[in-house]
């Protein structure tokens, strides 16, 4: 129980509520460039309309917009995704309700010391590690036989059903977008989907960022790119926090309440032979307002070989990446050392 006790005492929500001074392990090591809460410009991220992508008269133009978004920023906001604003609000509400419960209720779902699944925060893998100012609930969604239902909250009452419905819809959207990404590069449309596989890993991470007394020195999530193929983020409706890095400058992500923010992860960067960029991003904190988000990661089957599509390799553009299996296992080794895992698979 010692590891469990350490985990619970590290709840940032409790520290924020009690007005406790954050321990030094939460402070950024200074390699993140300047004062963390300094003003940064807003990104003009393209908005991609799934309705326009499916219509013969508008799909070519929308595919070009998708390609431009992923080759420049690595992300876009998606609308007309088939989910109503009221349903997205329901997802946000069950998340808020869970984190608002007393600690003893949330403790029922505490992660074990050697696993990321369940309620808690960062796994501490080294004494030098910077810890994120966030509590989270991390769940495996798919394959369904790998779900650990003991970590799925029974309260709020509709939590499990709502999350299941949401992620079923997202997996359909993910498959559609992987086909669209391939078409935008003039590839056979199942090219990326074939690498993604029939039994992908889909995980969900509910993030709670309480007000932070030192937003100038402490991050909600340290800079990283994702290990996924595709990541979907349901943003807080009111409170910003997500920032993307481009050309060594940070940019704020605007909030579009009825949209989903989509970014590609390292594995699509590999499949596209570097045409699509897996963006480095971080989450900043603020002193006044809490923030709730939900990230869903769509990750290729670990046994599948991920490699640049053959049609994207030529004499003028050779293969930039090695073939790789189970990229996620490489990812965590490098990420906690503050290194970009994709560097390990570059040729």
Automatic annotation (TrEMBL):
User: So which domain of life are we looking at?
Assistant: Eukaryota
Q: Report the residue ranges that make up the Fe2OG dioxygenase domain in this protein.
A: 200-300
Molecular function in Gene Ontology = L-ascorbic acid binding; metal ion binding; oxidoreductase activity
Q: Keywords assigned by UniProt?
A: Iron, Metal-binding, Oxidoreductase, Vitamin C
Spell out the InterPro entries in the cross-references: DIOX_N (IPR026992), IPNS-like_FE2OG_OXY (IPR044861), Oxoglu/Fe-dep_dioxygenase_dom (IPR005123), Plant_2OG-oxidoreductases (IPR050295)
Q: Name one Pfam family in it.
A: DIOX_N
Family annotation (PROSITE patterns): FE2OG_OXY
What PANTHER family is this protein classified in? OXOGLUTARATE/IRON-DEPENDENT DIOXYGENASE (PTHR47991)
Q: Which family does it belong to?
A: Belongs to the iron/ascorbate-dependent oxidoreductase family.
- This one is known as Fe2OG dioxygenase domain-containing protein
């Amino acid at each position: 129980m010692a590891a469990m006790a350490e985990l619970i005492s590290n709840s940032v929500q409790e520290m924020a509520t009690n007005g406790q001074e954050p321990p030094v392990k939460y402070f950024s090591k200074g390699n993140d460039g300047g004062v963390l809460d300094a003003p940064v410009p807003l990104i003009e991220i393209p908005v991609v309309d799934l309705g326009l992508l499916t219509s013969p008269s508008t799909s070519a133009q929308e595919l070009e917009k998708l390609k431009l978004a992923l080759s420049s920023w690595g992300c876009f906001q998606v609308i007309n995704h088939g989910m109503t604003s009221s349903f997205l609000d329901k997802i946000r509400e069950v998340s808020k309700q869970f984190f608002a419960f007393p600690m003893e209720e949330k403790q029922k779902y505490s992660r074990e010391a050697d696993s990321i699944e369940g309620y808690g925060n960062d796994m501490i893998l080294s004494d030098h590690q910077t810890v994120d100012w966030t509590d989270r609930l991390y769940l495996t969604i798919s394959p369904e036989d790998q779900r650990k239902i003991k970590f799925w909250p029974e309260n709020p009452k509709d939590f499990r059903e709502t999350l299941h419905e949401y992620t079923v819809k997202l997996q359909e959207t993910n498959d559609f977008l992987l086909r669209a990404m391939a078409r935008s590069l003039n590839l056979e449309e199942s090219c990326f989907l074939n690498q993604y596989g029939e039994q992908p890993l889909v995980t969900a991470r509910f993030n709670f960022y309480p007000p932070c007394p030192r937003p100038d020195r402490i991050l909600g999530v340290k800079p990283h790119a994702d290990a996924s193929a595709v990541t979907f983020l349901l943003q807080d409706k009111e409170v910003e926090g997500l920032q993307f890095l481009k050309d060594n400058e940070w940019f704020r992500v605007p909030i579009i309440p009825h949209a989903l923010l989509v970014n590609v992860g390292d594995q699509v960067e590999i499949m596209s032979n570097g045409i699509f960029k897996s963006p480095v991003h971080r989450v900043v904190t603020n002193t006044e307002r809490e923030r709730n988000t939900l990230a869903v990661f769509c990750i290729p089957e670990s046994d599948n070989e991920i490699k640049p599509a053959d049609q994207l390799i030529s004499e003028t553009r050779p293969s930039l990446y090695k073939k790789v299996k189970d990229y996620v296992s490489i990812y965590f080794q490098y990420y906690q050392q503050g290194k970009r895992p994709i560097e390990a698979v570059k040729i």
